[in-house]
């Protein structure tokens, strides 16, 4: 039997401390709800811990990362407080094979921009409008169990242009009541690691309690888990010998 | 516990009947060796049957396909004998989610050209030269357990230009002793189905007995198995109602 | 100075003969309006002719295709009347480098399905609702001169799932008033040829008179024009000699 | 008539000052040879200047970059001496639409790693072996005029794994006499800018005098030049108004 996937739910955890609306929606913190969602979806196939911005080393010590198969990332108001050396540490682990799931306002996280190379900027509006999320890749493991579309009744709007590299695979596209569209579920590979961006999840709406969102979270964890033991090195390698004979010149 | 993946190994099975060299290398037929390789790799996670060109309906009845999660395809001298209606039947099953693994000379199979839309032509030379297969995507599930490269001691050469659409993911690239290169492991998605092309496997060399090739076969079966139960329809759908209100004009 | 791009505007031209609404909107036929749009956009850089379904060989003789750099395709009610041998002829010319621009209901044309390998099906609704087309790739040559979005005041709705292979490049995504989204501007390569699908263009609305749509048409013609004289062959090529020496075995 | 493409050839220019072999091969400096190659290929369609690492601001002032349509980049021994703020400046210009062509050992340049998000590491060996470069995308503008393959008689070997994101388009794959393969011509888009990596070009061999290499350089400059005037912003944009009416809640 396969070992359980080791997930670390990383959370900024500052809105909850400052904003009563967020406290009411997520009294235990958003990270707890995300942790419970993943446990609910994957049961014994997963073990989940959490790590917070204000933990030592943001909770992302060498040891924690070494024991993490998939990292989820939610940040918003304090992206700048994440230390660059921790970003580098996370990046290296992704390249070595750790999956990374970046959520909602994490589009502006240092680690996301670091891996993608673009600004990751977008348009946004916060009036609690309807979002309808369409699946454009129903055979994708992340879409498993998701219908042709599902609705988030009240959402912050994110609209194109979402400044990202062309996704390797596009899974979801959002429709917003106010008139915009957005590539809401995007997959990329970097090194040996898999990267998924998933748009839903604003702090003032109960989006992480919603069944479809939880389903996608669980699917994404499974998809992003390392799937190959093949060799990979972070550094260039000098080869002395040839594999086949070379003519003298 | 997950149900086993139901694999059908499809084989042309004509070279073995006509050519003594092939008989010596594959006395039980190439299909038997491929079947055993997949069983060896995946054990209880798989059930494998075979189907041959000269079986009724080429062994690919509606029922067989309905019970197939992943189909492997080896053909060479008799591509033209595969009935177009069976090709259409296989195509529809791929779109609905069945995985398809096309092997070696199957690059010229009707089903492969049908799904890709190009000629799938290439350069070739048959002098038993060395092939060295390099992994360019070590994090890919199909590369699991494969080293930086492996060798096939004697191979038919396939060289670029391989006339295929840009692969969604490129996993292997071959080096040939005589001077050519080839994109030897290519992934695409069509509808809900996953498609993998794997180059090694000429009928006059014992390539399907080789450990690395068998490993890739097993990995590819796991990768190509259906991974999503989300809805998909082969036909356009007329929608009467709107999901959101539309202004009168 | 570069030679002008030779464009053939192919049109089914049946709605105009049967439907008074279409006659009023396109009294000279949709093909004439598309031809004029391309001429308006590209001036001396282009020469445009038209070809109709009911012309001999659908107007797509060997000679016409040999003299065509970019073919645009509009069909709807009579896809089945296009002869398979002409589809094959067009396909081969695309592979050899001719650009192909498939418009609106052409998503169900035989040539489009032939090149893509999927059903190309979608959802649709015809109530004249608002469409807003967003650019998701502002650096793409086809998006040149197009703002962040533009509106088509009355459109037939096409909604996801649009059953196509993952586009090599996605340029436009549509928002529909009634609640759907659609990948409206998609690029692929097949052989040496470039393929662009552009959604707008229903026969009962004056969409091909609209400035942004005409702009995109002109851009797409420039983008799809052949851009490389490098060798390409439709058939597999047997190579006798090696380029580098091969060890005896 | 179109304005000429404004090219800046950026060069580290340190090997020439320290190494007699390099001085003999490139007595005027590699940058001069690259400049002349681009001028030779594109004539009046181009104006080329050079910029060197040891120029003030590495020759890449705000003004120079504002007047650059395509930047070519060659560096090797002194990647670490490029100031991070200049890297950021170049990155922003690429996102805004400037083309970037990274050559040979530039795979390890800060700007390349910054835009791609991976280590960009590889295997290497320097024994002057034969390289044969195969075209896998003959319809691509960068392949225009290039035959099925061409040879570099003596080259430094670069071998897979080349740790890069999946290229949007793969144009060339190299075969090396000693047994390796390499993805030698790779295209990506970042923001509005186009990025091309081209492998050939070691400082101790006269590779930039070779006709095919010069042809590719010229083609790449044309391909990478900005091709769209559509709007793009480096920063997220707050939208107050909706484009379509939103229901009260």
From TrEMBL, chains A, B, C, D:
Protein name stated in the entry: Trehalose utilization
Q: Which Gene3D superfamilies match?
A: 3.40.50.880
The record places domain ThuA-like at 6-224
UniProt xrefs under InterPro entries: Class_I_gatase-like, ThuA-like, Trehalose_catabolism_ThuA_prok
């Amino acid at each position: 039997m396969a070992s359980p996937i080791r997930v670390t739910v990383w959370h900024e955890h500052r809105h909850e401390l400052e904003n009563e609306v967020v406290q009411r929606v997520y009294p235990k913190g958003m990270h707890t709800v995300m942790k419970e969602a993943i446990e609910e979806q994957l049961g014994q196939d997963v073990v989940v811990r959490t790590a917070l911005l204000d933990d030592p080393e943001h909770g992302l010590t060498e040891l924690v990362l070494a024991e993490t198969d998939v990292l989820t990332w939610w940040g918003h108001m304090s992206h700048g407080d994440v230390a660059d050396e921790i970003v580098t540490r996370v990046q290296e682990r992704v390249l070595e094979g750790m999956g990374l799931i970046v959520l909602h306002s994490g589009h502006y996280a240092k680690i996301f921009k670091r891996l993608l190379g673009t600004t990751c900027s977008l348009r946004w509006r916060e009036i609690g409008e309807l979002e309808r999320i369409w699946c454009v890749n129903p055979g994708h493991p992340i879409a498993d169990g998701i219908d042709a579309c599902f609705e988030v009744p009240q959402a912050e709007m994110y609209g194109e242009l979402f400044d990202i590299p062309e996704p390797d695979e596009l899974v979801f596209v959002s429709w917003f009541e106010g008139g915009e569209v957005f590539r809401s579920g995007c997959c990329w590979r970097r090194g040996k690691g898999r990267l998924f961006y998933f748009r839903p999840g604003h702090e003032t709406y109960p989006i992480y309690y919603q069944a479809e969102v939880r389903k996608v979270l669980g699917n994404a964890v499974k998809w992003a888990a390392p799937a190959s033991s093949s060799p990979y090195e972070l550094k260039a390698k000098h080869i002395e010998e040839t594999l086949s004979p070379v003519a003298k010149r």
